[in-house]
Amino acid sequence: MADETAMRKRDLLALIGAAGGGAAMYFAMTALGQAAASDYAGPIRLDGDPKGASVLVLGAGVAGMVAALELRRAGYRVQVLEYNARAGGRTWTIRGGDTYTELGGATQHCDFADGLYLNPGPWRIPYHHRALLDYCRRLGVTLEPFIQVNHNAYLHARGVFGGKPQRLGAVQADFNGGIAELLAKATDQHALDATLTAEDAGRLLDSLRGWGALGADYRYRPGRAASQRRGWARPPGGGLTAEPIASQPLALADLLRAGFWRALATGMEYDYQTTLFQPVGGMDMVARGFVRAVGDLIRYNARVGAIHQDDRGVTVTYTDRTDGSTRQAHADWCVCTIPLSVLNQIDIQVGGPMKAAIAALPYAPGLKIGLQFRRRFWEEDEAIYGGISYTDLPVTMIGYPNTGYFADGPGVLLGAYAFGPYAYEFTALDPAARVARAVADGAQIHPQYHAEFLSGMAVGWHRVPWTMGCFGLWSRESRAAHYRDLCAIDGRIVLAGEHASYIPAWQEGAILSSLDAIARLHRRVVAP
Amino acid sequence: MADETAMRKRDLLALIGAAGGGAAMYFAMTALGQAAASDYAGPIRLDGDPKGASVLVLGAGVAGMVAALELRRAGYRVQVLEYNARAGGRTWTIRGGDTYTELGGATQHCDFADGLYLNPGPWRIPYHHRALLDYCRRLGVTLEPFIQVNHNAYLHARGVFGGKPQRLGAVQADFNGGIAELLAKATDQHALDATLTAEDAGRLLDSLRGWGALGADYRYRPGRAASQRRGWARPPGGGLTAEPIASQPLALADLLRAGFWRALATGMEYDYQTTLFQPVGGMDMVARGFVRAVGDLIRYNARVGAIHQDDRGVTVTYTDRTDGSTRQAHADWCVCTIPLSVLNQIDIQVGGPMKAAIAALPYAPGLKIGLQFRRRFWEEDEAIYGGISYTDLPVTMIGYPNTGYFADGPGVLLGAYAFGPYAYEFTALDPAARVARAVADGAQIHPQYHAEFLSGMAVGWHRVPWTMGCFGLWSRESRAAHYRDLCAIDGRIVLAGEHASYIPAWQEGAILSSLDAIARLHRRVVAP
After folding, report:
1. Distance from A314 to chain B by nearest Cα, in Å?
2. Per-domain residue ranges for chain A?
3. What are the average pLDDT values for consecutive 10-residue runs of chain B, which has 528 residues?
4. How far is CA B452 from CA A132, A280, B49, B376, B378, in A?
5. Shortest Cα distance from B516 to chain A (angstroms)?
6. What CATH class does A167-249 carry?
7. Which of B30, B229, B402 sits opposite A269 (nearest CB)?
8. Do A238 and B173 touch (CB under 8 A)?
9. Which fold would CATH assign to domain B51-84+300-360+474-526?
10. What pTM did the predictor assign?
């Protein structure tokens, strides 16, 4: 892609260090395209007879289970080793009754009410993640819309607007109105005569008036047009008490000071455009769908210690976590989907280039906190149904559940989704203190937090024993130096996962990486 | 509200006559705020004993059933007369097995497959329509998200981009990028120095770069930043075939020529902001909810011919449409929700001001066509899940179903939603020809129409016998002259419905009008 628009790692690091903290990190990741589209063109075809060849798949996350499913379908003998007692990897949902122990030993018990959950990992599926959507269809995973942009959710910045959260729709209206008015003024003052023909300038003015909800004088001001975008001071009604009262726009200078355009921009990113989906019941419904297809191939609680190969096959030594015994598994080939953060600590017999690639990729920190409340006050009191509020507080985001709308009884929202330094700040605390901190932050946006809070669960990905990080954080330089070496087949071993894709952090990247890896492996196996 | 932003009826009529036709009319109505928010503050309280007073409610649409429900709850004896054999009025859903006969006698039989439907009237519920949402909750009507803005739906204009439809998300990215680049240029050239402080100008440039996906040189150009908004030429993938290729933005001059900003602006209107809802199963689930509560009060097939009153009560003469017999109903009071287009033809004994008001309000034409196809090609081939495509062809819009995503088998989409002259153009044809016309128009956007089309249903509201129009088309002048007279209680009669609200065309307006009317009626009844 064009050089001038590719961000460099040093830009990213500068952003990480910037005053914005977690929010800046998040927006930077978005801008970097840590997430993107898919080039999936339909179910993979692996033609040709593998003649009984066997494959050992390491890791029963999405990448591993795709490999297992498709390789068995193509005629391979497949076995899968998985560290956890469940499949899915980062495709994970925490519900009431679940227990989670992080690095260091801190254990949390989840007491969320029936039907409520936290997706600590992926939580949304863009419409253009064609491979994942196709597997959902093939595996019978039911999807429902995920609301990314909620115009009635909040934008909040400390020290701007007296710390009062503003509705996203009003901010959008006022930002658009503000820049439309400025551009109309510049156009009217002939500042752009060298750039625009007179006809284009006329059309531009028309468009700015309509798009920006400007008045006939091309000014953005209180009135019907602006209120029909940003909402009313008194909304219109019926009968004799019906006449509406226009609302007062926010000043553009204040909006710029708050940096609210970042959240508006995020909502326009390709990965967050409509229509997004989520599995009904939690993201691990994707994992369960795969388990229905390949669960019989998976050995759980298998901690891989060594991956050796010779010219006849691959031998994996692992510990059975249920009894501590050491075991071995053998196969002709190996698809290894273990996160590089973990694989880098495993004795793997591959060449220097792949080893260097495995060692080169840092993993991003990341943290999610689910908070359970007595009632859905964000719906009942504030008419927020799904979507995300943004703040410059460490919690960074508050994500409202995109399901069970209007339900009585308790609800769980995403009380924090933090990156960069903020993620580390949270995990420096013990889990209970993290939750308390999320409640304190969130109460600045929703004062109801104090009265309604019940319990919480905090997952810091850099403290998850089996990933030690959220996702592989590629830079332009590290990709140039290592990406091809990471993906190349080394003897009888090929790697797959989001880290071996251009769609890091997304399940789609894991799937496409896996499909690419097994297609190449299969070509090698059936080659004459 | 402020004078300078209120559009006048002559502006509207000018728009109706403009070249844009139906699309212009639609966008004009949106801009006029024919739709807006709600000042509902919770269930109505009608304190005080009506002492056995009786009320005759005319019309079992949403306004009438709200009146029936709340007045009975307050202690009134209530009866409802309804023209149709069903309740709901414009809150109407057509399904397979339904038959519809319009003015002039043309009859259509619907053969949509099980579970598929067309909502000829209202089809979406904004999050701020608090009254309707509250009734849905009270009446057990289950809601699901309605997708208004789908970034992967199309914008289409004849003669621009060679008639090739463009994805809304790409248009939005390119429009925003284009105006951000222009404003950055003007700012950089000091054209706005009199308006902005240097600090604000610096923040504005930062925001334009991020919000508009500009490069470091503040230009909008092909590359990662733009592609992460508008989509990629080749999307990123996994493994060794993964590197993405940037896409080419559309020229701002072409976008302006196409007028695509109108559709972008529509998606930002308060009424269409997230999160919108629709009832699971069709909008008439709202009517069915009310029927569960007040169905026992409704006499169906009652065509009202005369509404007389004296100082003791109201007498309504009606025809029983099942046997042609003439009957009468009596009550102390009357809440009349009959559309003014029909009421204007009925012998109603009210004073001159209300009569003049009834006669003064024109009704907007409007047309919806539902098209059934063999399969959901818009999902399968084009990854469009819900939402709306816009075209300057007479069909004006194509609305994709916001439910049953990823389902196999036939699907029904909204093949036309036309206003103004285009609505009349369609109804000048017989229903089969209207459907054929919608198929021909839509095939310019979705060529699959030709191979996949099964059947259609066309409802032109100005030809619906019991409304003879889509909704009451108020202008600033007609409101000033007649609105209060329309809403005032005349003797023992009060009117209600969307026509007696500032939220015309929406169920919320009908409900709030009804609540305001019965509150005033009740105060009169219980007054000492």
Report:
1. 21
2. 33-84+285-363+471-526, 167-249
3. 34 38 43 48 94 98 98 98 98 98 98 98 98 98 98 97 97 98 95 93 98 97 97 95 94 97 97 98 98 98 98 98 98 98 98 98 97 98 98 98 97 97 97 98 98 98 97 97 98 98 97 98 94
4. 26, 30, 60, 9, 11
5. 5
6. mainly alpha
7. B229
8. no
9. FAD/NAD(P)-binding domain (3.50.50)
10. 0.93
